[in-house]
Amino acid sequence: MPTRTVVIIGGGIAGLATAVRLIQNGIRPIVLEKRPFLGGRAFSFIDKDSGEEIDNGQHVFVGACDQFQQYITDIGASNQIQLEERIGFPVLKNGKTSWLKARKLPGVLANLSALLGYKHVGLTGKLRILWGLLSIKLTRLNKNSAHDLLTFDDWLRDHAQNDETIRNFWNLIILPSLNDDITGVSAHTGIELFKVALLGAAQNPAMGIPLAGLSTLVGENAKNFIESNGGEIRTGIDVESLHIERGQITGVRTTGDELIEGEAVVSAVPAAAMNSLIPGGSDGQDDFFTPAESVRTAPIVAVHIWYDRPVLTEKFVATLDSLLQWVFNDTDLKSRNEAGQHVVISLSGAWEWQDRSKQELRDIFTLEMEKAFPAAGKAKITKFTIVKMLEATFRVEPGSQKRRLSQRTPLPGFYLAGDWTDTGWPSTMESAVRSGNLAAEYIVEDIRTGDQPTL
């Protein structure tokens, strides 16, 4: 059978996942990436100050991210990630550490047992949390649900939660997971998150960590798979517009006026970049794409500190009543054999920090490290750098559900992928993969290749 070709704009995880799934269905993808590297917002680079390959930010996944894990397996990189058996991480507050750690119990009981030994919430607070989780379990959601019109903070307070439980439990999970404070995210997304994370299988909330640099993990491995199976990857290609023939999208034009043709085109770029590609004046189509113009983003700032000796004993630590939020021991996570220690401080919802200078951030966060970890006060800092991702994720604020578009559009031959599209997941690597899988499945259905043998 003749090989069909699909053009994919964007070489991030969503675009690469689309390409992998198309190949598995006998379709040849051509992936066009504007930058000289793949991975989108998940990449690594050589830091000019340290000379070390570092990730642009600390990326994690959880056990519930089944499609992301399958994608990693499909591209032959399953040995480059590690997933814990169940949830378990230390939480540091005012110099005292307590663990949120699940017992070896079946199903949801394992996740709920993590509350038992958690000392940063009292007995009454734990009962409140259990009532909140029960309320979540009994809540039914749909895309037009009124839960998307109020904040998760407001919903929780209407369901017996108070400052203690919200600060020391709910927002501890919401802030890093959704890259926004609990007062800024929709109740719909918050409820959805806890339904999957704590009210599902025992391994659902377990943390997974990349063991290799992100550019290798999600970029080079995907490139090797795609190219070895007849697909094409082209970097340094800037797409200027969609090419339309007889009302059908049949390719793209680059800024160099090159026409790259395909039977379909997938936009796997952020909402703002996608909007710039859409031709205006088409009947009914503007109404479909218009909501995406309101998609807003949130920043993440990663603070990288290299010490001349170990200052953390755990692989990662969450903090309360501290500016640090989450601290990762990158040296241990990447199994590096070195005398010192590379620490990554991950700052979610980082509007307060995005405009601060490198020296300001160094002064603030080296002092915070000394307050939280006494060993840091005795260690010498050998290297220091900052990575700012100003548009790291899309915001799941109230009203955001209606801004998330389907992967199939009313423009014939035009499809969408990207974590911001309608996947049922927040802005995560899992959402990116799910969007790519959905886009590919729609394409397979629409160009009638579903009966071709898979690889």
Automatic annotation (TrEMBL):
InterPro entries associated with the record: Amino_oxidase (IPR002937), FAD/NAD-bd_sf (IPR036188), Flavin_amine_oxidase (IPR001613), SQase_HpnE (IPR017830), Zeta_carotene_desat/Oxidored (IPR050464)
Keyword Lipid metabolism (UniProt): no
GO molecular function, one term: oxidoreductase activity
Pfam families with a match to the protein in the record: Amino_oxidase
Positions with a binding annotation for FAD: V239
Domain Amine oxidase: 13-443
Keywords: Oxidoreductase
Swiss-Prot/TrEMBL cofactor(s): FAD
Entry-linked NCBIfam families: HpnE (TIGR03467)
Name the record gives this protein: FAD-dependent oxidoreductase
